[in-house]
Structures are given as structure tokens and as C-alpha cells.
């Protein structure tokens, strides 16, 4: 009798090659591997060597800029076009390579910024799953625009925005490209392209969890929101459980972390006494904003650890590094998870990128939100008003700069102001809820198990 094939499932995970996208998708690949699925991460030549993932294979595909990545493209539009052309071809070759092996590919999990990867999956007759790295709220807004339920630009008169099932949003809470779409044509086109072929995806996965963003279930038929399966937070469980075995974070770093310097410095600081400051991997601050943050931190009562990327160093005010002495440490990159998990950190001044927001929430660190671009404004709204784990710094009306006095006021509020205890209590509550969601029997874990079961049967 012919032996029936046992499907273990082989998932190829394709991230957009930036830090905020590689991190959650790599983590998902590792999570799948821990559940017995064979996982391969297919990423660009430029990023392939930045990944450390013992239980996952890593393979290179091409974006057409194999030497230098998107930094070498003339603009975002040109980069995306090249990635689609070269990425489709090389992803297809990769799937074909596995066809004759013991473990043919059964599913492509692709970053929703790369919808062409779904077309490749369909051509090869394997499952396609879109992985959204934004919040469900932002994905819902974009979904509504794509379906003509929301017209651009969204105006002050349209406020508040009440979407069934979601928290009410005011004008300052909207992603920047909804208010000024003409200022961000390529970015807007990319975010809307996520929906171009989404009806063909077998799953829509979201890096969030059930309790986090949905206010109440929308009535059947009234549901005009993005319908994803929540599988987050995609943060290494060792950090959620507080049993960190190594200091590699997600296991991917596009820049060299200066962790030893940070750790040594932090060891000498009392618990909850340090402000950690980072604007993520993409934000470019104006010189004026850098100056205000620098002197705001220097003039505050707190120790601070500030990540200033090498490309931003020239904007630091003259004499600032020397003037910080024992009080502050400026580094070019760090292992953020490691820092947020350190007991010396009492507050995170963040640009409110979705990963940074989730990381602080999951590790119980209260935040001061200084959003600058895209979805960061919406995330800041949740930090302050929905989860009660921080405050959003107010900008000067005319140029969007947060002044030093405002930063210092926010730091006092979060570190030891009247509402500080409440924020810390809420942060501890969300930490627990996040951990529950991904632990055995939690909502996200159950959703991942269902996904795995289907991928492993191989039946569409
Ligand atoms: N990050 C890091 N070290 C740093 C700053 C950031 O490891 O010094 C990581 C951070 O943990 C997060 C990612 O980079 O996972 C940034 O993603 P996010 O969505 O917060 O912002 P983006 O960089 O996409 O704007």
C-alpha cells in the first residue's frame, strides 16, 4: 500500500526589508517553527545576513538592489516597482526549488506591503496569508478608503470618526497621509495596494490581539472594518515571560547594537529612574526638534538613554554630549527589547511606531508619545486615551515641534506626576493581557494553532 504523505507544512515568510517589518515577521516564523512547522524567511540580499534564527531557514530573494537595499533607489515608488519585478521572479524560483524536496512550500506569509507575493503563491497553487504590521485600527481606516467608504483628504468637519467596533478618532489622531495625501503619494499608494488583491488571500493576519483595539463587536452586516485574525503581539515570548536567555531580541538588527555600553550604564541606575528615548528606524527629526529634545532631556530631573542614529548625529546641539556627562547616554542603536525589559527604565519617549508601542505595552513601560508621521498619531491616541499608559506631547501649532518645556512636563507626568501611579498600574495590566493572548489557550495562540492546523493539512 502506498504510504500517505504526512504534511508538516512549510511556510515561507516574506517581510518588507525594514526593521519594523522584519522584526514581527521573523518572530512569526520562529513561532511557527516552535509549533512544528518548517519555516523559511525569504528576505533581500541586503538584509539576509542580519538575521539570527536557529530554528528557521533564511533565503535571499532580490529587490533589484542587492548591494545596498532601498537606500540606493531613487525613491520609494522606484524601489517598490523593482522589488515587485525582481521579488516575484526570485520568490517563484525559491518555491520551485523546494517543489522537488521533502518539504514543498504549503503557504507564503507575506508582508501586506508586498501584495505581489500573494500572486506568486497563487501561481504556485499554495496558500497565501497577508501579514499586516500596522494596528487593526489603521488597517480599518485604509480598508475604508480602498472601498470608497472614506474620502481623502479626511477633513476636520468629518470628525469625530466613528467606525462601528472601533474607538472614536479625532482629527489629531488620524494617520498623516489621510489628512495630506498629496504629501505622501508613494507611501499612500503602497499602503492602499495592500488591499488590491486581498480578497484572494486565504488568511489576513494582524500583529495585535483581540482585547487591544476593538471596543465592542460591530453588529453583523455593519462591520465595515478590516477583518483580520489577530495573532499578536509578535514579541519573543522570553521577554513576555521575563526569562530572557540571550540578548538578541528578535534576532535581526540592521544596525550594530551597543548593548554592552547600555547595560553597563543601566546597571548603576536605580529601578524606574531612566528615560529611554528612541524614534525608531525611519523618523528623521528637524534640527530644531533635536535641539528641543536634547535640552529638554538635559534640563529634566531624570537620567536618559537616547538612541540617535548615526545619520542624525550631526543635528545634536554643539557641546551636548559633553554636557550630559553622567546624566545621559547617547548611542547609535540598541537592542530595544532588552532595554525596555530592564528594570532601570521608567519611561519610554517614543515616536509611537506600532512595534515600539506594542513592545512598551507588553513590557509594562509607560510612554511619552512624540508622533511624527503616518500611523504614529493613531497609536499615540491609544497610548493616552484608550490604554491609559502614557501621554502624548503637544506640538507647537505652526511647525509640529515639541518644545523642551512640554517634554519636561510630560516626563514629570509619567515618571512621578499625579497620574503616574495609574499609568503604571495600567501598564502592568496590559503587560499581563498581552502575555495571556500569546500563552497557551490565549486568543492569539488559538488563532495561530488554527492557522498551523490548516497549513499542515495541505487542504485548501
Ligand atoms: N529598535 C531597536 N533598536 C533601536 C531602535 C529601534 O531594536 O535602537 C527596533 C524596535 O524594537 C522596533 C523597531 O526597531 O521593533 C522599530 O519599529 P517601529 O514600528 O517601532 O518603528 P519604525 O522604525 O518602523 O518607524
From TrEMBL:
Enzyme nomenclature, EC number: 2.4.1.-
Coiled-coil residues: none
Keywords: Glycosyltransferase, Transferase
Superkingdom as given in the UniProt entry: Eukaryota
Gene3D superfamilies: Glycogen Phosphorylase B
Gene Ontology MF annotations: quercetin 3-O-glucosyltransferase activity; quercetin 7-O-glucosyltransferase activity
Glycosyltransferase N-terminal domain location: 11-45
Record flagged with keyword Glycosyltransferase: yes
InterPro entries reported in the protein's UniProt record: Glyco_transf_N, UDP_glucos_trans, UDP_glycos_trans_CS
Enzyme class: transferase
Residue ranges of the TM segments: none
Family: Belongs to the UDP-glycosyltransferase family.
Protein name: Glycosyltransferase
Upper lineage: Eukaryota, Viridiplantae, Streptophyta, Embryophyta, Tracheophyta
Amino acid at each position: 500500500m502506498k504510504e500517505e504523505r504526512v504534511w508538516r507544512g512549510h511556510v515561507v515568510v516574506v517581510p518588507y526589508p525594514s526593521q519594523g517589518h522584519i522584526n514581527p515577521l521573523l518572530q512569526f516564523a520562529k513561532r511557527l517553527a516552535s509549533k512544528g512547522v518548517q519555516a523559511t524567511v525569504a528576505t533581500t540580499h541586503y538584509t539576509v545576513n542580519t538575521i539570527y534564527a536557529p530554528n528557521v531557514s533564511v533565503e535571499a530573494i532580490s529587490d533589484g538592489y542587492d548591494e545596498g537595499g532601498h537606500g540606493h533607489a531613487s525613491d520609494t515608488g522606484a524601489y517598490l516597482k523593482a522589488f515587485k519585478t525582481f521579488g516575484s521572479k526570485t520568490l517563484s524560483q525559491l518555491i520551485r526549488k523546494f517543489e522537488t524536496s521533502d518539504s514543498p512550500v504549503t503557504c507564503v506569509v507575506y508582508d501586506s506591503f508586498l501584495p505581489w507575493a500573494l500572486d506568486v503563491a497563487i501561481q504556485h497553487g499554495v496558500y497565501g496569508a497577508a501579514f499586516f504590521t500596522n494596528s487593526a485600527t489603521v488597517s480599518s481606516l485604509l480598508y475604508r478608503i480602498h472601498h470608497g467608504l472614506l474620502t481623502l483628504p479626511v477633513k476636520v468637519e468629518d470628525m469625530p470618526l466613528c467606525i462601528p467596533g472601533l474607538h472614536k478618532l479625532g482629527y489629531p489622531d488620524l494617520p498623516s497621509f489621510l489628512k495630506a495625501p498629496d504629501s505622501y503619494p508613494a507611501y499612500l499608494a503602497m499602503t492602499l495596494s495592500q488591499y488590491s488583491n486581498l480578497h484572494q488571500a486565504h488568511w489576513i493576519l494582524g500583529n495585535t490581539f483581540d482585547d487591544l483595539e476593538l471596543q465592542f463587536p460591530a453588529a453583523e452586516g455593519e462591520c465595515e472594518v478590516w477583518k483580520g485574525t489577530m495573532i499578536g503581539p509578535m514579541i519573543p515570548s522570553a521577554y513576555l515571560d521575563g526569562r530572557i536567555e540571550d540578548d538578541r531580541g528578535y534576532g535581526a538588527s540592521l544596525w550594530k547594537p551597543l548593548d554592552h555600553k547600555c547595560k553597563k550604564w543601566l546597571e548603576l541606575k536605580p529601578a524606574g529612574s531612566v528615560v529611554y528615548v528612541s524614534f525608531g528606524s525611519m523618523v528623521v527629526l528637524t534640527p530644531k526638534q533635536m535641539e528641543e529634545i536634547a535640552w529638554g532631556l538635559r534640563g529634566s530631573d531624570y537620567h536618559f538613554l537616547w538612541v540617535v542614529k548615526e545619520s542624525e548625529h550631526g543635528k545634536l546641539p554643539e557641546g551636548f554630549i559633553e554636557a550630559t556627562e553622567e546624566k545621559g547616554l547617547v548611542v547609535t542603536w540598541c537592542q530595544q527589547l532588552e532595554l525596555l525589559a530592564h528594570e532601570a527604565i521608567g519611561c519610554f519617549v517614543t515616536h509611537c511606531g506600532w512595534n515600539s508601542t506594542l513592545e512598551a505595552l507588553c513590557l509594562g513601560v509607560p510612554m511619552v508619545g512624540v508622533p511624527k508621521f503616518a500611523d504614529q498619531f493613531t497609536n499615540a491616541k491609544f497610548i493616552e486615551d484608550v490604554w491609559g499608559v502614557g501621554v502624548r506631547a503637544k506640538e507647537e501649532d505652526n511647525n509640529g515641534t515639541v518644545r523642551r518645556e512640554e517634554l519636561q512636563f510630560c516626563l514629570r507626568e509619567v515618571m512621578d506626576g499625579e497620574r503616574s501611579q495609574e499609568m503604571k498600574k495600567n501598564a502592568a495590566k496590559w503587560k499581563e493581557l498581552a502575555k495571556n493572548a500569546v500563552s497557551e489557550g490565549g486568543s492569539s495562540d488559538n488563532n495561530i494553532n488554527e492557522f498551523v492546523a490548516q497549513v499542515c493539512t495541505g487542504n485548501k
